[in-house]
Write a structure and sequence with these properties.
By secondary structure, this protein is of the alpha/beta class. The chain has helices at residues 27-39, 61-72, 97-102, 114-124, 142-154, 183-189, 216-227, 249-262, and strands at 15-18, 43-46, 77-81, 106-109, 128-130, 167-170, 173-182, 203-208, 235-240, 266-268, 281-283, 286-290, 295-299. It is globular and about 50 Å long.
């Protein structure tokens, strides 16, 4: 499997399209987020259905997909930016993948956005970016802002810049196409074409979850689901992101058993996920995970 096609980077003054595939956007909160993003030098265009609550918990699948597809064919929009919640998986059959192939753009999200980001790469070959949401700009930290700029504006960084201590749980070096995201979504798509499990070649998998969403029995169950899916034969290495404010011995032990069982490098860090650090990870990029040196390298060709 080859590294994905790299969309054109942002320039100051470019337009970022904000949509909401997974939750009802609060107009007052989003007004503040949009102001911060505009203060960073970008224009913002809101999706037509951004604030709709057709179902009471979200706009309809078609309304949410219409916003995504409209942004794809809008020549003024350079990047689509969206957050998490629940329901992104509902859009997968409604996305215009052919339009994305003709108009490759930047896609940035995290959490429930996992399904859409991985589906777009798997079905179009266009790189997508995991790690931040519009809500990240509510109180954006220097590390998060530098990650946004380095991946989406300045170019293609060769390494994941660390901002936390890494813990190697099974030493080794692995190589493959980088994919992953929020653990629940990755588990849900593990038996589908969204995961790219049917493609040739290895995958460097990154996962994240948080104790406020999933306790350890749940995390272990979801990891077991991955172990029983076709994806497991493709995984060459695993990097797990932020889970709790303090090191969780049960999680570290479970990840260590995962590495030992499958004889693949595994490491834990706090650099991405639902914590203070929000590194950006390019889905579809070729990557090398070295848990002896505790580093993740990106290769774009």
């Amino acid at each position: 499997m080859l590294a994905g096609k790299i969309p054109t980077k942002l320039n100051k003054g470019d337009t970022i399209g904000i949509i909401s595939p997974s939750h009802i956007a609060d107009a007052n909160r989003y007004a503040g987020l949009i102001a911060v993003i505009e203060g960073c030098g970008f224009r913002v265009k809101a999706g037509r259905n951004l604030y709709k609550n057709t179902y009471g918990y979200a706009a309809s699948e078609q309304e949410r997909a219409d916003d995504l597809n409209a942004m794809v064919v809008d020549d003024a929009v350079r990047m689509l930016f969206f957050g998490g919640g629940y329901g992104g998986l509902e859009l997968i059959p409604l996305i215009d993948y052919e339009a994305i192939r003709r108009n490759p753009k930047l896609f940035l999200s995290y959490s429930d956005g996992t399904s859409i980001l991985n589906a777009i790469y798997a079905r179009t070959g266009v790189l997508t970016y995991y790690g931040q949401a519009p809500g990240s700009f509510e109180r954006i930290r220097p590390y998060g802002l530098s990650q946004f700029m380095s991946h989406l504006v300045e170019g293609n960084p060769g390494d994941l810049v660390k901002n936390s201590k890494w813990i190697s749980l099974y030493d080794g070096v692995s190589e493959g196409i980088l994919m992953g995201g929020y653990l629940l979504n990755v588990a849900l798509m593990a038996n589908t074409g969204i995961s790219g499990a049917e493609a040739d070649g290895k995958v460097v998998l990154f996962l994240e979850d948080h104790e406020k969403f999933s306790n350890m029995p749940c995390v272990s169950m979801l990891l077991s689901h991955l172990e029983q899916s076709p994806l497991i034969g493709r995984i060459s290495g695993l990097l797990f992101g932020h889970y709790s404010e303090n090191e969780n011995p049960q999680l570290l032990n479970r990840l260590s058993r995962f590495g030992e069982k499958h004889k693949i490098p595994v490491a834990y860090c706090d650099d991405f996920g639902h914590g203070a650090n929000q590194a950006v990870l390019p889905i579809g990029c070729r990557a090398v995970l070295d848990t002896r040196e505790n580093r993740l390298n990106f290769h774009y060709s």
